[in-house]
Amino acid sequence: MCCISIDVAIAATWEGGAWRRLFLCGKPRSEKSSTALPFSSRPRALYTVAVKIALAQINPTVGDFTGNLARMREYAGRAQSQGASLVAFPELCACGYPPRDLVELPAFVGRARAILEELAAEFPSLTIVAGLPTPAAGETGKRVMNSAAALRQGGIDFVQSKRLLPTYDVFDEVRTFVPAKSQSLFTHQGKQFALTICEDAWNDKSFWSRRLYGEDPVEDLVRQGGEVLLNISASPFHVGKPALREAMLKAIAVRYRIPVLLVNQVGGNDSLVFDGCSLAVNPQGEVIARGRAFDEDLLLIDTDELRGEPREPLGGPEATAYGALVLGTRDYVRKCGFAKVAVGLSGGIDSALTAVVAVDALGKENVIGIAMPSQYSSDGSVTDARELARNLGIRFEVVPIKPIFESYRAALAPVFQGLAEDVTEENLQARTRGALLMAVANKYNALVLTTGNKSEVAVGYCTLYGDMVGGLAVISDVPKTMVYRLARWVNQRGPVIPEASITKPPSAELRPGQMDSDSLPPYEVLDRILEEYVENMKAADEIVNDTGIDAATVRFVLRLIDRSEYKRQQAAPGIRISTKAFGIGRRFPIAAHHQI
Fold first, then answer.
1. For 402-427, how does the pLDDT look when each residue is reduced to its tens digit (9 = 90+)?
2. Is 198 among the catalytic positions?
């Protein structure tokens, strides 16, 4: 939980039968722009109003109404005990975000409202702002709106719905929600709050060179007299997103000369990770409070003098990417009802990084490492896997696949008579390993973590029902070059990943002397093409002109990417850390010829 308290000192004079505000938070405002204060008593020369606000940065689970209510109850109690008069929770926190098509179930929508009514009854003296789906008015169109409710005096007192519904990348809110036609201010202890929901704050014309929407809810609410912008969010993470979000909120605060408060969801739900990093920004664009990244937090500040204790950002791209992978793995495994995971350890860098993430996410006692060498495995494969397991303190088993593989070959010999060995036999090895991993997972009620990186998944350098077998593809949005950077970053804490796993040439070890470079360009080249094509949506000729990579290599890689769509759509969900991950954020057809 992130709890941000704001003490506002207001100086006022009596004029024309009403109080006129002269100062807000110690900063002067002109009498012309001030608004009447609804004070009923006779004036004093100085009147001080204490307004404490708490931002509750929590980790909800989609559909877990009982669990979500318990979290809100706990943090509302904490906020109240520390003197807060208002506590704000994230977008759709009552039901969890993103609920997707669950909101089409009337009972789902009704349950979300019911738990907020229960929460309101428990805290009648506390104002609570929380997100929930609400029924949409009218007999035509979609049935539901993405809303924020203000709970006070034991019930739901005010409802504001989202106007801007994103449909790009991982978002598909227009599919399920009706946009609000207008929004209004709500008053709390004499202050006018501009309450917005996530995307509503992402259309500032002074910040974006190209806007996605024609209207700007923030601008409209400030024109109505909004004095504090309060945004409740479920803003998904990608590398660079926290800094972008912070810069955008600073620009809004400076433009309108008002405090900006944002409470953001934290946690992992399916492929998405929410980083938290809730913010309070003063009218000068200075961060006066910042919540932790990838964790629930309790952060207290006093803005009577616009001072607080903002936490430092988590760090560079390696630190933030790794934090997202750990949180995403932990929440996916636990929210799916598992405690243990199984990881195939090849002695290579990909499986090593996956195992390290798993241990940090779930604890060493919940990770099972399994080496499955074949006759083509190098001498160091099992040695490096064993060293990694020893460094991590995880259970380690060795299950050779040669006898099983040979039995497959013998069984298929009559069918394959007269045909040379090829990729078929290589895939048999991968599928043997996949079957063994699934057997171990079934026996120990564990979830298999696949170990393929984004570079391999992009070009199809992986085997369906083989090394792609599993419940979660932990590093499937991590390009190979970043895998190396993350491995080095991890080893700064201590030599966990064996040096040999980092330095030896990458190989699938499915035939004698096999190297990845036999089939693919160097990963530095491959990853550059991948970034330009998948994330920046550039055509082949543009990539050649912008990178200097030869046209034949570019077109070869693009063909591999396009032809491998059928594999990716059968893959386990991965954890999104880039601006364009494979999965729900990239929806391409399988049966198509679209190379450009």
1. 999 999 999 999 999 999 999 999 99
2. yes
d(CA 230, CA 201): 10
Rg (CA), the chain: 27
- Sequence-distant (≥ 6) Cβ neighbours of residue 254 within 8 angstroms: 283, 284, 285
162 is catalytic: yes
Residues 6+ apart with CB under 8 A from 485: 318
* Cα 588 from Cα 533, distance rounded (Å): 13
Q: What is the predicted pLDDT for the residue at 10?
A: 33
Give the span between the Cα atoms of 390 and 369, in whole angstroms.
10
pLDDT in tens, 483-497: 999 999 999 989 999
Centroid of chain to Cα 399: 36
Token pair 């190209």 is found at 210
Strands (E), 38-136: 53-55, 86-88, 127-135
Q: Using alpha carbons, select from 365, 415, 351 the residue that is nearest to residue 395.
A: 365
Note the pTM of the prediction, 2 decimals. Answer: 0.89
> Which tokens go with 352?
């090593």
Residue from 158, 245, 147 nearest 196 by CA: 147
With beta carbons less than 8 A apart as the criterion, state whether 313 and 73 touch: no
Catalytic residue among 2, 52, 93, 162: 162
Residue 91: active-site member:
yes
Q: Is the peptide bond before 479 cis (omega within 30 degrees of 0)?
A: no
Both tokens of 499, joined, read: 């040096």
Sheet strand arrangement including 191-197: 186-188, 191-197, 228-233, 260-264, 279-281, 287-290
d(CA 230, CA 127): 14
Domains delineated in the chain: 10-314 (3.60.110.10), 320-520+564-568 (3.40.50.620)
User: Which amino acid is located at 453 in the chain?
Assistant: N
- Mean pLDDT of the chain, nearest integer: 89
Of 277, 276, 191, which is closest to residue 229 (Cα–Cα)?
191
E-strand ranges in 79-152 read 86-88, 127-135, 144-152
Which tens digit of pLDDT belongs to each residue from 512-555? 877 878 888 999 999 999 999 999 999 999 999 999 999 999 99
- Two tokens, residue 471: 């419940």
Q: Are strands 18-24 and 10-15 parallel, antiparallel or unpaired?
A: antiparallel
Identified catalytic residue from 3, 91, 199, 387: 91
CA-closest candidate to residue 185, choices 134, 237, 155, 221: 221
Beta strand pairing call for 27-28 and 18-24: antiparallel
Q: Which residues, listed in sequence order, are joined to residue 583 by a DSSP beta bridge? A: 586
Contacts of 175 (CB under 8 A, 6+ apart): 101, 167
Residue among 2, 3, 198, 462 flagged as catalytic: 198
- How far is residue 119 from each of residues 149, 193, 232, measured CA to CA in Å? 12, 22, 18
- Torsion angle (degrees, nearest 10) of CA 247, 249, 250, 252: 130
